[in-house]
Amino acid sequence: MPRLLALHGFGGTFGALAPRDLARLAAPMGAKEIICLIAPNRHASGIPAWFSGDQSPAGRYNGWSLTEQRWAELAESTACATGRRPPPLVPEDLPPADPWADWSDEGFHESWRCLEEEWRRGNYDGLIGFSQGALMSVLFTQLLSKRRDTAGEAASPPKLLILCGGFAAPSPPACRGAWPPRERLKVPSFHLWGRDDPIVANLRSRELADLFHQPCFYEHQLVAPNDHKLGSHTFPWPDGDTEAFKALRSFMVTRPT
User: Fold this and answer.
1) What whole-number distance in Å separates Cα of residue 21 and Cα of residue 24?
2) The whole model's pTM is what?
3) Which phi and psi angles does 126 have, rounded to 5°?
4) CB atoms within 10 A of CB 152
């Protein structure tokens, strides 16, 4: 039975479940234990985040939150091109982003150090990530694998990933060159998404799953019990979707080791 490290979504929650509730997910999904790591960063509103920003509703690419310095750089470049300085920019003024565009590293390096330290000392087998935490889980696995292959990294990358409500882009600039991967990732992965997710459209979660070799996936129809505005942007719970946990247990048993 694997021991898992959980990475929460933007805002410090793990779906609709608080970190203290994760213990009751372990046995139903066939895990020995689930430990939640809280991101070391704080967004402008004071809530924890692995890196700045998050997806916009309906899966529209919006990039990461832009710092004031980056806004100033954008305004300056516009002024140089047009000969006049525009009014303060707002996101709607920007052209549609490249799906793989990356705008800000804010918070990423602090998160990486925190995650790497916990991974090295925690004797974990895999990662379970929700929303922004799902992307962080995959980035960590990919970059750790690359370092092991090119620099003799001693720490073993995760042996399995469980990802819910995740997305593949946009991504932090620090990962440029390693992300998106050139080849499908071979780590065993199980992907969940909500049918009616207004925060990360399920097509974005499918994009993430498509980066893996032989991914397992499951679509649930639950609605976040603590905040209905989140729709299906939630991790299933055992008495809400027994089939999801049957599928998870099957994945735990049959995955390559």
Assistant:
1) 6
2) 0.80
3) -160, 180
4) 7
Single out the residue of 115, 201, 190 nearest to residue 165, CA to CA.
201
As given in the structure block, the two tokens for residue 140 are: 């960590």
Alpha-carbon distances, residue 182 vs 115, 125, 133, 144, 224 (angstroms): 24, 25, 22, 15, 35
Helices 132-151 & 202-209 angle (0-180, nearest 10): 10
Contact 169, 61 (CB under 8 A): yes
Give the Cα separation of 168 and 163 in Å (integer). Answer: 11
DSSP helix, strand, coil percent of the chain (3-state; round to 5): 35, 15, 50
Which tens digits make up the pLDDT trace of 3-40? 999 998 877 676 656 666 777 889 999 999 999 888 88
Tokens (6 digits) for 227: 């905040």
Rounded Cα gap, residues 113 and 129, in angstroms: 17
Closest CA to 255 of 184, 161, 185, 145: 161
State phi, psi for 219 to the nearest 5 degrees: -105, 125
Q: How many CB atoms lie within 10 A of CB 46?
A: 7
Kindly provide the b/e burial profile for residues 223-233, where b requires at least 16 CB atoms within 10 angstroms of the residue's own CB. Answer: bbeeeeebbbb
